[in-house]
Amino acid sequence: MNAKNTDFGTFAQDVMLGLNSTPKTLPSKYFYDAKGDKLFQQIMALPEYYLTRKEYEVLEGQHEQILAEVLALNTPFNLVELGAGDGMKTKILLRYLTDKKADFTYYPVDFSGSVLEELEESLASEFPALKVNPIQDTYRDSLKRQVWEDGKPNLILFLGANLGNFGVKEAKNIIDHLRVGTKKGDQVLLGFDLKKNPQTILDAYHDSEGVTREFNMNLLDRINRELDADFDRDSFTHWPTYDPVSGECRSYLVSQKPQVVTIGALNQSFEFEAYESIFTEISKKYSLSEIEHLAYLGGFSVKANFLDPEVYFADVLWEKK
Ligand SMILES: C[S@@+](CC[C@H](N)C(=O)[O-])C[C@H]1O[C@@H](n2cnc3c(N)ncnc32)[C@H](O)[C@@H]1O
């Protein structure tokens, strides 16, 4: 696996910065350690978590149209995936490309080393002939470093509503990185969760089995495990909210009482007032016009929007102008 050379010791720094901010916050990328990866796989199978099913439906039903242009190039290309996760939906595309005998190398990029190892293993058994080059890195740094092969056309996948895990300003910044990290003619396929009935959205982040709660709480467990902290998870409540105007679904951990938490690795204690919250995740829902505006900002033209019949989810194909 191609891991970034700089160290990953920023967890402690990010926790320190986040818990010293007002309001307190923790970056959502730290959800994904070995336990968080497993919990996310359980979330994807939940009846309330429509996102995975809907995107699967889009890719399963329309992969031929989605991949028509890259196949028509009839030349070797790079298939880069930002935040690949377990690659469950991507395998629909990989299978079709492999069946069509396309000449490409798959570069799954993910911050989580454990999920990349799992993906590499499953690809080796399901697609033994596939050229795979996993990269452990962040979205932004991988786009800056561009470790995929120079000179070949790129199809960059950014599936699963990953861009939705950023607020508007940060999403624009990621789109800027995509602009810089691509060349004329490169294609980008992005997954967006669309605005819909607010209750449907909220239920996806507050499931009846409590798996999304467990996923959120894993951040506290992870700080306890890795940074020698004493968070009492039972004194925090998982609290997702959805604002239909901004389209932002935000998850919080709310302290149920005044308390002090000590983080040994930081040599610091943090005071919580009763009902003070830690903001842990944003999942922004988009309208098609907002998505089109992002394409315009990044210097991409919209080739096609692929939607499921209920219009819950969009995979949009852009081309660099
Ligand atoms: C919501 S999951 C989606 C996974 C997959 N794309 C899918 O649709 O099922 C997000 C994935 O992106 C990774 N990730 C989150 N933030 C990241 C970042 N800033 N840079 C790189 N990977 C990140 C996580 O480790 C996780 O595997």
UniProtKB/TrEMBL annotation:
Superkingdom, natural source: Bacteria
Keywords: Methyltransferase, Transferase
Gene Ontology MF: a single term: methyltransferase activity
Residues covered by the Histidine-specific methyltransferase SAM-dependent domain: 11-319
One Pfam family, short name: Methyltransf_33
Gene Ontology biological process terms from the UniProt entry: methylation
PANTHER family in the cross-refs: ERGOTHIONEINE BIOSYNTHESIS PROTEIN 1
Protein name: Dimethylhistidine N-methyltransferase
